[in-house]
Amino acid sequence: MDLRQKIVNSFRKRFGADPEFVVRAPGRVNLLGEHVDYNDGFVLPAAIDRATLLACRPSGSSLSSILALDLGAETSFDLNSLQNKRTNRDMPLPGWGLYPSGMQWSLAEEKLKTPGMDAVFASDVPPGAGLSSSASVEMAFGVAWEKLGGWTRNPMHMAKLGQRAENRYVGVNCGIMDQFASACGVKDHLLFLDCRSLDWQAVPLPRQVAIVIANTNVHRSLAGSAYNDRRAACEQAVHILREYLPAIHALRDVSPEDFNRHAHHLPELVEKRARHIIEDIQRTRLAVPILADNDIGRFGTLMNECHISLRDLYQVSCPELDAMVETAWTLPGCYGARLTGAGFGGCTVNLVAQDAVVTFSRELAQGYKRRTGLKPEVYICHAADGAGLMD
Ligand code: GLA
User: Fold this and answer.
1) What is the pLDDT, as a whole number, of residue 210?
2) Interval 161-189: pLDDT, tens
């Protein structure tokens, strides 16, 4: 049974009626520009053909009752007491409940109407795997409230409201990339985003390559706090470098030459973190002209360099991610491979020649299993459209 049928059936069972509508919001994979979104850099993600689906109707009151089918868990919260992060039975909201209630809080902060809803949701974006399952949940609920509230906001605006929910309600200091990709995805395209101006363009994915996603099945651990630590190191670097480069506002503003001139003022670890950011912003800037030239070989090399930098400088890889990437690098047809998303576990992204993709996927899974004893999940991914109502 497909995911839509599953949530609709479960909605009928739980609420005794059909849902009024179903929303789909995709996860994302990022090809270049990792950890640079919160440094005002450039990123190149795509929305993927795995998504959160949400079946919904108005509840008729300020209360929302939400069933998370994948977890077999339900929670309820009231529009008028979102700030407390407690259920209507005065218990702390479960962790997963912070995403729908946080989204409602963020929309309400914006004075948007968010009537209570009855909802069932489920997802085939694996959680904790670096494919932005949480952003897809936020965007699904955002679109549902847009429909229930009878207002409209453009997808980028919705992404910003989702980011605010995550930053100020859930407590993860993430950048805009995940919500952006989930909201603004374009089928068969990568999305090139300037995280400072928020200007973006859809870039066609060259026909001769496929994106293969490989899940190490190592769950991200410590991701929240380690993520916030990395962000703090970047802020510290800007703070120190500003003494010598007064015009800078973010690491985006520091050229590699200026950085090399002043890097010795930074503590060693902060220097490493900042070097990754500055070099990765340079790599991602090159991506669009390289794709326009159809120079897949060069693009793949940038992906490989990005992985090495994330491993050695930003230090967000782990042995299993390295094993998956190193295996991919040895296989025919692989242009580039690297960890994708925040790191510490989760998935790698691979750019692979179309005609090699089946053998590549099989051999990658076998090679990874031989090296780690773990069974990965490897699948060919298609770039998808962003969040919206389903027909
Ligand atoms: C997480 C965050 C994003 C981004 C990536 C790393 O997915 O939510 O904003 O910082 O990590 O690139």
Assistant:
1) 97
2) 999 999 999 988 899 999 999 999 999 99
For a ligand 1 pocket test, name from 32, 44, 132, 177 the mutation site with the most ligand atoms within 8 angstroms of its C-beta: 177
| pLDDT value for 225 | 84
For residue 61, the CA-to-ligand 1 centroid distance in Å is 35
H helices of 48-171, where? 98-109, 133-149, 155-165
User: Ligand 1 atom closest to Cα of 43?
Assistant: 12
Tell me, rounded to whole angstroms, the distance of Cα 129 from its chain centroid: 10
Q: Point out the residues that are catalytic.
A: 178
Residue 326, pLDDT > 70, answer yes
Nearest CA to ligand 1 atom 1: 342
Instruction: For tokens 């069933």, name the residue.
Output: 67
Is 38 touching ligand 1 by the criterion CB < 6 Å?
A: yes
Question: b/e map of 4-31 (b: 16 or more CB within 10 Å)?
Answer: eebbbebbeebbeeebebbbbbbbbbbb
Place of tokens 């993860």: 172
Q: What is the pTM of this model?
A: 0.97
Burial code (b: 16+ CB inside 10 Å, e: under 16) for 53-77 equals: bbbbbebeeebbbbbbbeeeeebbb
pLDDT at 244: 98
Q: Is 335 helix (H, G, I), strand (E, B) or coil?
A: strand
| Tally of CB atoms within 10 A around 291 | 20
Q: If you search the block for the tokens 């739980």, which residue do you land on?
A: 14
Q: What is the pLDDT of residues 342-371, one digit of tens each?
A: 999 999 999 999 999 999 999 999 999 999
